[in-house]
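I'm stuck. Please check this protein.
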Amino acid sequence: MNPTLAQIIAYINQYINTNGVNAITGAENNTALVYLANAILNYSVNGSLAGISSSTGVVPLSKPITLFSVVPASINWPDNFQFEYYIINATGSNIPITSGYSFVDQYGVPQTIIPARTSIHIAKSTNGQWIQVNNLGAGGGSGNLPPETGHEGQSLFTNGTTAFWSDSVLFIPAGDANWINSTTWVNGSSYSNPYFSSSKFMVFWNDLSRFLLQTSSPVEWQYVSNGFQALIGGFDSATANVFLFFKGVNS
């Protein structure tokens, strides 16, 4: 058992301080001393040394400081003695946070990933939320860029929280499997942009040799959830070849 400091104080008040008949047992005194010794060790953030995880499964944090050398399926954390954690992502990919867990950055935005090549320090606040307490820009995107290796020809994007490599142009051929009808295309899992659902882009209809209008009249296409819909007359996904040109900031 590793009780909290408040529980240790309560134990001492119950069994040690209020015992006015000199009947403190060795077991009671020993328990209090063990609790205090463990508290000193546990309260030192790195008293038990930082953990290094290479698991690919779901990882509950078991130490105040954990370095991830391999991307796990997700991570989560219980309330520990310090009510704080240091999470170091030493990989080139974002680490997902298990559903139901998150931390709030200094912009008040809940975050559900640990960005690539980033160290995050979180602490529990009086309102029960876990908050980011290190001085990094919005989830740690400040100065921590993903490696170029394996991303030849791609462009660097940001969603304001983290940076990632992705294709800046996506070709959608006639009859592509992601056309759900003659005018509407919904992104499939094959595209490399992890933030496609919040990405902004321009639509170029190759057969018409121009970009379709979206912000001026006549409106020729519109965003739909995770894709777009062509509104221009004569458009048919069975014959249309389209390019999506992605903008550098996704929002």
